[in-house]
Amino acid sequence: MSGLGLDAVAETVYLTALTRVRWRIADLARQLNLGHGIHPTNVDQLHSDGRLTDAVDQPRADLRLTAAVDQLRADGLLVPSAEESGAVRAVAPALALPALAASRVWGLSAGDARPQALSIAQLIARHQPPGPDQLHGLDEMNSFAEHLVANARREVVILSGQHRTGSFEFAVPVAEAVLRCGAQLRLVWRSDLIRTPTVAAHATWLRTRGAAPRIVPALPTTMLLVDRSVAMVITGDDAVVNRTPASVAPLCVLADQVWSQGNPSPRRHSLPDQTPRHHRVLRLLADGLTDDAIARQVGVSVRTVRNDMAAAMLSLDARSRFQAGVRAAQLGLL
Question: Which residue ranges does the record assign to the HTH luxR-type domain (predicted)?
Fold first, then answer.
């Protein structure tokens, strides 16, 4: 196992996938020399969710590549391309690796491989985008949006005037990354989008996380605004990235105006906050609360809080609660 908590083949596939915006599986196989026996006429026959065709239907496929791609998809490190059917895209490390660490940290036992904070930090540092002024295509926009959102510290605003399958605007991992770091997530959607079943389901999930979207009859633009310092303005299949104070300031004013004019999205029924309890306990501990205070806020017993902390220390390989908090922060869990 590597410092990322992946096996060697899966890590190699992921690192290779990061070198391009998107890959066809056949091209990955050739690049990695993992394609011995893969038939060129059927390697691109993927399931609708992007997985390789079942081994029983493709007996000569290299099972190592099949297993690696399926593992990476399950772990949220590979997703289907939003532009090319059958192709996959690597999710930005700054977004995907903290999410992977968060998903694994509670389920590990002593001796299991753990994602290592240093390995994650080093990979994220090596894959910082160069800071483009223009982006072309939904895959490029998704990758850059993942990077921006993963580095947000205070606030993320998304104005969505249209729904496109695979867009970052309606992706659960993007919203999770904002909420996990404690930043405010403000979403404004054009009102007719809520009639789309997938959008309505996403709105319901967002309400459970305390980030209910607002709706307006029309939007002047589609935009991602992060920490009021950088904005990606989208027009069709292209986007312009604004970074200068002079260009970002009017976009902040626009975002505030649209947010203030928005109405809450239709609510089907009242839903409780579903932020994972372990995550809330870790965050409250990092904020300096005592076990008693954490128990009152979370609504559990002090014993449950202490059990959660013991599990966190085991999974994070920490000798103290303080060290557990530090390692959780390093892994992007707070």
Answer: 267-332
Report the C-alpha gap between 83 and 23 in whole angstroms.
Answer: 11
Tell me the pLDDT of the chain (334 aa) as tens digits. 567 788 888 999 999 999 999 999 989 988 988 654 443 333 344 444 444 444 444 434 478 888 899 999 998 999 999 999 999 999 999 888 888 877 766 554 444 556 677 778 788 888 877 777 899 999 999 999 999 999 899 999 999 998 888 999 999 999 988 988 789 999 999 999 988 888 988 998 898 888 999 999 999 999 999 999 999 999 999 999 999 999 999 999 999 999 999 988 665 444 444 456 766 777 777 667 788 888 888 888 888 888 877 777 766 667 777 777 766 665 666 6
Say how far apart CA 197 and CA 214 lie, in whole Å: 17
The residue among 54, 56, 48, 49 whose CA lies nearest residue 72 is 49
Rounded to 5 degrees, φ, ψ at 78 are -125, 140
Are residues 240 and 225 in contact, defined by beta-carbon separation less than 8 angstroms?
A: no
The domains located in the chain, with CATH, are 93-128+276-334 (1.10.10.10), 129-264 (3.30.870.10)
28's tokens: 């990955």
